Amino acid sequence: MFSDERPHTKAGASITSAPDAAHEAARFTEIVRGLAERERLHDLLCRHVGRDVARRALEYDALPERNGLAGGEVVEAAVLFIDLVGSTTLAATRPPNEVATVLNEFFRVVVTAVEGHHGFVNKFEGDAALAIFGAPRPVADPAGLALATARSLRHTLGALHSIDFGIGVSFGEVFAGNIGAEERYEYTVIGDPVNEAARLTGVAKTCETRTSASGHAVDAAAEVESRHWTTRRSITLRGRTEPTVLAEPVEHK
């Protein structure tokens, strides 16, 4: 009699052939590569727009009922604007790559200080930066955090004798959300505090402290931070109709 030399298996068990195993291994490798690429793209997106804005965009994109631009909201937030002094001369007298090196070092200091105080660097505009405290993620005492950031930047950048700067801080209601077209938009804030902070940088450049805040921002801050500031005078900033009370940081012994 002839014996059946085929391998015996338990009922219901299956044998995976070598080609099938190779196919499954290749499929698994492709999945791993896809996940790695997805993580790389997510990290790249976060570097370009910030983690909170990236998370907000991805959450909105996953909504089945999404329609057009993601909506925004009106929130109370603090705005910090910082601008380099003499960047035009710098660009005219130094090679472009050296100018880029100076700007990158400047922005590195700004990002470190802002993120260290739970703020969000919304954008770089040439030789200036706009930071927000209170959007897109709510924080406790946004005015105090922005003012503390301004004082920190004042000391850190002041130690870099190769650059000069002006810092302005404002506080109030802003619209925070996406602006643009459905095909191309960006997250930003719009409102009078943004304009006021930008104008305050011009005032700051004429001050010894190189830092100027609105009295409203100081009044809105918790006492632990507001005690480091003093009001000076009131002026009507360019482009505004109401006077702004100016405040500057003071050193406590």
Automatic annotation (TrEMBL):
Q: Which UniProt keywords apply?
A: Cell membrane, Membrane
PROSITE patterns given in the database record: GUANYLATE_CYCLASE_2
Residue ranges annotated for the Guanylate cyclase domain, each copy included: 78-201
> Which GO terms label this protein's molecular function in UniProt?
adenylate cyclase activity
Where is this protein found?
Answer: Cell membrane
User: Per its UniProt record, what Pfam families does this chain match?
Assistant: Guanylate_cyc
Identify the SMART domains for this entry.
Answer: CYCc
Q: What coarse category fits the chief subcellular location reported for this protein?
A: membrane
Question: Could you mention a single GO BP entry for this protein?
Answer: cAMP biosynthetic process
A GO CC annotation given for this chain: plasma membrane
Query: What CDD domains does the database record attribute to this sequence?
Result: CHD
The annotated topology with respect to the bilayer is: Multi-pass membrane protein
Q: Which InterPro entries match?
A: A/G_cyclase (IPR001054), Adenylyl/Guanylyl_Cyclase_3/4 (IPR050697), Nucleotide_cyclase (IPR029787)
Q: Which family does it belong to?
A: Belongs to the adenylyl cyclase class-3 family.
The protein in question is named Adenylate/guanylate cyclase domain-containing protein
